[in-house]
Each structure stands twice: as C-alpha cells, then as structure tokens.
Amino acid sequence: MASDVIDDLQKWLDSEWDPDLTVGEWWEKLGREGWSAPSWPSAWYGRDLSREESGRVAATVAKHGALAAPGGLGLLLAGPTIATHGSDEQKQRYLRDIVTGQRAWCQLFSEPGAGSDLAGLGCKAVKDGDEWIINGQKVWTSGGQYADLGMLIARTDPELPKHQGITWFAFDMHQQGVEVRPLREMTGRALFNEVFLSDARVPDSEIIGGVNKGWTVANTTLMFERAGLGSGGGHGASSVATPGTVAGDLDRRAGDFVRVRSDGGGDPAGMLSGGYQLMVEQAKANGKIGDAATRQALMKLRTLNELGRFNNLRLKAAKQAGKDIPGLPNIAKLSMSEIVRQSRDIGLGVVGAYGTLHAYGADDRKALDAATGNPFLGMLTELSLFAQAPPIYGGTDQVQRNIIGERVLGLPKEPGDNKALPYKDLPKNG
Predict the structure, then answer these.
(1) Do β-strands 149-155 and 166-172 pair in parallel, antiparallel, or remain unpaired?
(2) Biggest CA-to-CA distance, the chain
(3) How many CA atoms lie within 13 A of 404 on its CB side?
(4) Residue 419, in any domain of the structure
(5) Of 70, 186, 252, 303, which cross-links 243 as Cys (Cβ 3.0–4.6 Å)?
(6) Across the chain, how many H-helices and E-strands are there?
(7) What is the pLDDT of residue 259?
(8) 37 closest CA partner among 63, 55, 15
(9) Cα-based angle 355, 357, 360 (whole degrees, multiple of 5)
(10) Would you give the DSSP letter of residue 267?
(11) How high is the pLDDT of residue 1?
C-alpha cells in the first residue's frame, strides 16, 4: 500500500482521536471517513483498499492506541452482501449504520436440520400483503443476543427446487415472535445462540437481491465469511466495545474500551493472527524451544501463515488485473482450519500437563493464573478447546473440498435428481 495512505491515516488519528469521546461518536468519525471498512467501495463508506491493506489500516489504528472499528458480522458479512446485491436505497439505509456501529447484525442461516446442506432449510416465509410471516428455528447464531438485525434466509416457495425457493431478508430482531437462547460451549463461553421465530414479520422492502433469489445472495455472504475467516483477524490492541443498541456501549467512553488483550479473554478466533508469536514465546518460557519436534511444528505454523499471506497478495494482484482466483475463499477457510489445529497441538505440547487445566469464568481465570504463574495458559487452553469449531462453522472442511472439486476442478457431482425436485417433494433431509 502506498505509504501516503498510512501517513494520511496517522495524521487523521493525531487530529481526531480523543479517548473522551463516546464509542458512538468515535465510530461515527471512523466510519464516515472510510477507516472502518477501508476495503469497501469509496462510494459506500470505504477506500477501495485490499484486504491486506485494510489489515495495515487496522494495525495502525491499534498502534496509535485508538478504539478499533466496530467488529461483528455487520462489517464482515452483512455490509459487503448488501453492497453487492442491495438497491441504492437499501445501501443508504443500512451501510452507514454498519460502519458507524449503530446497528449490530447476526446471521440467521443454519438450522438443526440444515447445516452443511444449507439449501435444505425449512424456515418458512409466507406472503401476507406487503409483508412476510416467518416461522422456524435457527441455530449457531453468533452474536444473536446483541443483534439489532439479522441476515435471514427463509423458504419463500416450496414448489421450487430447494436452491431456488429461498429469499434473503434484512430481519428486525426487535419484534415479538423472536426468542434468542444462548448455547454454552465447552470453552465456557456462549458465543452462539439458537433463535426461535414465531409469526415474526418482515416487509417486502427488506428483501435483498429479489424474491426466490436468496441462494445467490447467501452464497455471496458465505464467500465473504470464508474469506474473512481464512484471513484471520484481530491485533494486539483491539476494541472490546460491542456495536448496536442492545449492549449499551455506544454511549460509554471510547478510551475505556481500548486495552491490550493479555488475560486469555475475548473471542478465541481473534488469537489466530498472533498465534505464531504466542507459541514461540511459550515454547521459550517452557524450555521447549530447543526441542526439534517443537521447532518443526512452529515452522509449519509459520509456513501456513505465510502461504495465507501470499494467497491474499495473489488475489489482490488478480483483482487489480480484472481477474479472480476461483476457490480461493474455500482454500483460505481450509487453511484456517489447519492453522488452528496446528496451533492447538503446539500449545498443548508446549505446556504439557498444564494443558488439562481450564478456567470457565473470569474469577476462575484469575485463580488459574495465580496457581500456574502463566497468564497465557488460559488463552492456550481456550484456543485448544475452540479448535474443534473452525473446521465446522462457515461450512465444514468437507463442504469446502466438495465446492473446490465440483466448481473449480470440474469433478462430477453426487448422483441423484434431488436438486431438481420441488422442495416440498424432497425426502426428509433430502
């Protein structure tokens, strides 16, 4: 990236960052100037930068000690999807509130019977005048308890084949008929939820991409999800403020939400970007840095991270030339799964028997830190427990390989005519 962009950002931060601003006031400044989502189009609150360049922008904001851009699925998924498929009126309605953190989003895709086979979803949307009545259940909904809006895909025509009768809605989570229930994970956290929709409503104006065209829109969302997951994310000093109206952070002091994460807290996915250096330091501290097997494993982890970085550069060069690299988001997702597994194995190997200890709450973390003398142990054990999730969420590793095989390499698809049958005629889970 041209150094003048970072120079401009640094000058802007010197002038505008004030820790006594509220979170909402600071995010308004950051988003309006295009620094919240610098990879977005400049016409829609972005700066037309690549993903790698956007990472440097985030790192510069962090290094300055300023509050990071609003995180969550609004910036990662909803905004880019609406920017791709939404009307200009919908972009005006939603995108500014995303980059300024005024509204938080969740993803209402997966269901108990429709995970890997997402097109088999059964959540129903029935037309009622200029509205749709929604009934169904969603699961693994990240951030659902804090969301103002949801990216909802629902069955709008059961007479069509399962991939054709789906519609993508921008769904209001603040209405009767929406019940959010947290799901406790083995890490001790509740990052995911199940959501029950009972006679909830959504107007025609909230349809993104057209009626019964939601599968195409959903695949755009999934593409951004896989690319985002594959690129890692996070940095040493990051915002712990939550966007949207539910969490209540918008009116609080921005400077109170800037801290260096060193307590093993936070989203374990955010540990991935700095995972290699953490593993090196822990290997040194635990006397394992001279072990040949540990050094070999560390070099494999470093190599995987570098391959991911070079793939991002390849994609940037291809985009600049008006081309694309088919399947790269799926490859990035597979790479992320391997990185987190490698990090798990290194971490547990380095700390040895201490890896059997884990704290499931804030008080327990403090007690564990005091007992072991290692404030990073909780981070390592949480990452190890969390490592089972990335190969599943965002589309399983098996699904990614099927997509690469069928859509990129041209291998034959599974036999059968289920994709041509109307959804209502499909066998259960067909």
Answers:
(1) antiparallel
(2) 70
(3) 17
(4) no
(5) 70
(6) 13, 9
(7) 61
(8) 55
(9) 125
(10) -
(11) 47
| Two structure tokens written together for 325 | 């690299």
Bridging pattern class, strands 105-108 and 149-155: parallel
- CA gap 36, 17 in Å, rounded: 14
Q: In sequence order, what are the beta bridge partners of 207? A: 169
Q: What is the pLDDT of residues 285-313, one digit of tens each?
A: 999 999 999 999 999 999 999 998 888 88
Give whole-number Cα distances, 46 to 33, 88, 95, 379, in Å: 8, 15, 10, 33
Which of the residues are catalytic? Answer: 225
Could you tell me if residue 227 is inside a domain?
no
pLDDT for 265 equals 44
**Which CATH number belongs to the domain containing residue 286 in this structure?**
1.20.140
- Could you give the number of structural domains in the chain? 3
Q: List the one residue out of 266, 160, 262 whose CA is nearest residue 214.
A: 160
Q: Please give the pLDDT value at position 231.
A: 55
User: What letter represents residue 149's amino acid?
Assistant: L
* pTM, 2 dp: 0.81
Lowest-confidence range among 172-186, 350-364, 404-418? Answer: 404-418
In which element (H, E) is residue 258 found? strand 258-260
| Residue ending a domain, choose from 45, 72, 101 | 101
Asked if 137 and 111 count as a contact pair (C-beta separation under 8 A), the reply is: yes
Q: Is 234 or 290 the better-scoring residue by pLDDT?
A: 290
Q: What is the CATH number of the domain that holds 112?
A: 2.40.110.10
Task: For residue 189, give its domain range.
Answer: 105-214
Rg (alpha carbons) of the chain, rounded to whole number: 22
Per-residue pLDDT tens over the stretch 11-62:
999 999 999 999 999 999 999 999 999 989 999 999 998 877 888 899 899 9
Same-domain status, 85 and 201: no
Residue closest to 284 by CA, chosen among 385, 153, 396, 376: 376
pLDDT of residue 239: 52
